[in-house]
Design goal:
The structure is a single chain. By secondary structure, the chain is an alpha+beta fold. It has a domain of about 30 residues. Helix content is about 15%, strand content about 30%. The protein has a two-stranded antiparallel ribbon.
Length: about 45
């Protein structure tokens, strides 16, 4: 079931529709919103 999530990104309100609740926020920022500044770190939350 798709879920719409409202975010405030760089001072503008956007809505992202998410099909998978386990999808990382990074994927939504890069793929759905076209932002290429955010990047994946080491993956160890450090």
């Amino acid at each position: 079931m798709a879920t719409a999530i409202a975010l405030d990104v760089n001072g503008r309100s956007v809505t992202v529709t998410v099909d998978d609740p386990q999808m990382p926020l990074l994927y939504a920022l890069r793929n759905d919103l076209g932002l290429h500044g955010p990047s994946f770190g080491c993956g160890l939350a450090q």
